Prior knowledge:
Layout: H1 3-13, E1 18-24, H2 30-42, E2 48-51, H3 62-73, H4 78-91, E3 97-101, H5 103-109, H6 111-120, E4 125-128, H7 137-144, E5 149-151, E6 153-154, H8 160-169, E7 174-177, H9 190-201, E8 208-211, H10 217-224, E9 229-232, H11 234-241, H12 247-266
Parallel strand pairs: 1-2, 1-9, 2-3, 3-4, 4-5, 6-7, 7-8, 8-9
Helix pairs in contact: 2-4, 2-12, 5-6, 6-7, 10-12, 11-12
Amino acid sequence: MSRLAATFEQLAKAGRKALIPFVSAGDPRPDFTLPLMHAMVEAGADVIELGVPFSDPMADGPVIQRASERALDHKMSLRRTLAIAAEFRRTNQQTPVVLMGYVNPIEAMGYEEFANAAQRAEVDGVLTVDLPPEEADECVALLKARDIDPIFLLAPNSSDDRIRKMDAAGSGYIYYVSLKGVTGAGHLDVKDVETKLNQIRANTHLPVAIGFGVKDAQTAKTVANLGDGVVIGSALISKIEANLDDPERAQKEIVELLGAMRQAMDS
């Protein structure tokens, strides 16, 4: 059983939901990411989505776009992101790490070389925003052969057939994009999310994590009551952006926000 499957199974048995923070590797500088990952686990994170900075992040709003730009200014790359994941794994064998990014850097490295590198780094899942299941057979096969979960995005307008395709191709969990638009945009419509979750659950056996609109503890609690996991990204990156000259303060504010979310989700 993969770390992701085991984590969601253990949380379900305990009647709890997964708290899944997203951070961009190397933002605001490369030496900040590793200690932040450990701090987020201490604050209650169950899974970490580690963003691979990319020059054209089409699904990301301005906050995460700027995070990618800051990281790229420090020469952050897919290989350096994998190195951070490997270093994290040296002292944490429990918390799943999911790489989240775009297909171009993976194709530049080569699917097989990437899959081997991800396995060496003990990465648990790979979420490639712009690689749909219809075009992912080679990548999916290579990842699954190495016990790495391919994770796919579902949108508010995804059909039953598409949900079933992602269920067949993916593993670990499904990431439900709870609103139309980019990360950090708009506000959640709880009734719409609930309706869509009923449709998704009728067509998949996988846990469902909900993101793209979670901004605070109350929203996290509401979303946790609907899905199996809550993803938060832009709200955390905003803490970094507001404290570029004081990374320690940024980490403290991120830990406080995650702690409040964890408490709200468990209450």
